[in-house]
Specification:
With 225 residues, this protein is an alpha/beta fold. The chain folds into 2 domains: 1-34, no CATH class; 36-224, Rossmann fold (3-Layer(aba) Sandwich), CATH 3.40.50.2020. It has helices spanning 2-8, 29-33, 40-43, 47-51, 72-82, 87-100, 119-125, 131-141, 164-171, 180-183, 199-208; strands at residues 61-67, 111-114, 144-145, 150-152, 175-177, 187-195, 215-224. The strands form 2 sheets. A 5-stranded parallel sheet has the order 1-7-6-2-3, sandwiched between helices. A two-stranded antiparallel sheet has the order 4-5. β6, α11 (199-208) and β7 form a beta-alpha-beta unit. The longest helix has 14 residues, at 87-100. The protein is globular, with a radius of gyration of 18 Å.
Amino acid sequence: MKYLLNLIFPKVCEACNLALSDNEVLLCTSCRHHLPITNYHFENEEAVKKILYGRVKLENASALLHFSKKGIVQQILHNLKYRGHEEISSFFGKWLGSELATLNNYKDIDVIVPVPLYKTKLRSRGYNQVTKFGQEIAKALNADFNDSVLIKTKSTTTQVFKGRYKRWTDDGAIFNISEKESLAGKHILLVDDIITSGSTIESCARVLLNINNIKLSVATMAIAD
């Protein structure tokens, strides 16, 4: 039956759209081999922290992949965000989560918090593209997952190809917080799909850092070059 289904509805690579073989998941072997992996968390590279330097204090920060315009990662994230392929979020969450679990810097993470979507976008898309990413990382780190602590209070347009100043001014104070008391004293890992200028992460971080005595780290699927 599975063979017949694959003949009628073949599974294709999320990057190149070619048919996958039976032992391939989401990405073909060639595309996975060509993914621009950062290895930031293994090499103690602080590229993500440098984006936010002087704006918010972070304990640790990493991104799994490099993102470039018209590149392989853009295609994959497009499928995740606009074509309903939510399984990509789980795929990257399991991948990054398994790597972070080997590092001492992430062993004391208490709770994973995803960057939220505005309510109308969440309804139209049907899911937050970073929910499963965060849930899988939470499993790997034996941490809690909390997608209700941050609330987005107004809609914004996509950030990736805006000018840097425009990104900063657009995000402003558009996030709110709930459940402050339950997160006091925790080490929070804030997760998102991509970091560009850092304006979205900064806006979320400034709200979270109002919680008493927390530590804050960041992990994303990708970082824009």
